[in-house]
Amino acid sequence: xxxxxxxxxxxxxxxxxxxxxxRIFTKIGRxxxxxxxxxxxxxxxxxxxxxxxxxxxxxxxxxxxxxRGIKKASGEMGSINYEEVIYEGYGPSGVAFVVEALTDNKxxxxxxxxxxxxxxxxxxxxxxxxxISFEKxxxxxxxxxxxxxxxxxxxxxxxxxxxxxxxxxxxxxLANAIDFNKVLEGLSAKNIVFIKxxxxxxxxxxxxxxxxxxxxxxxxxxxxxxxxxxxxAAFHNARx
Length: 240
Prior knowledge:
By secondary structure, this protein is α+β, with helices and mostly antiparallel strands.
């Protein structure tokens, strides 16, 4: 489903695999810190932490990194304080954006996010202005491998997911946001190989972008969000 995540195609991920992995681990580490601060260091009693740990494992984050992040957040290895912030606005051609961030300095992050919008000819809006264009879903991108669409559909139904979308290079599985852990465990039991997984904001209505100049501006915005360490995810409703 084009437009719901921070990349329109998996192959657009830029930089070396190691650099990309490092950015992902940094962002997940911050999510762990916030979850621990909010609900404690025990995933058995902290559903949000359990969900993030599952996400970390799906992204091949080493267990040592996960344990270290939990210890840091719980005060055993220092003090980390991140605050969750959501920014909403519009890019060129009225494309809606919701940017989720974890920051220790809201003024700095707000200025950086506003600059990304402004450079692309967009504008940062007020809370609630763009979020209505999305709904939260569990999203799993999995390698096609040798699995045909019919076989994958059987797995999806067995795991009680909602939808399967076939792409040229991967399968996209959608499920209710609250069913993330259940579907992840079901897919993992089938030895499914994940490209990425998580709870994302899926666009309800897409804006078709056919103009090359507008597409370049949107891709520049996405690159800016991806390179910002404070941004954990950026969602848009463009179909480029």
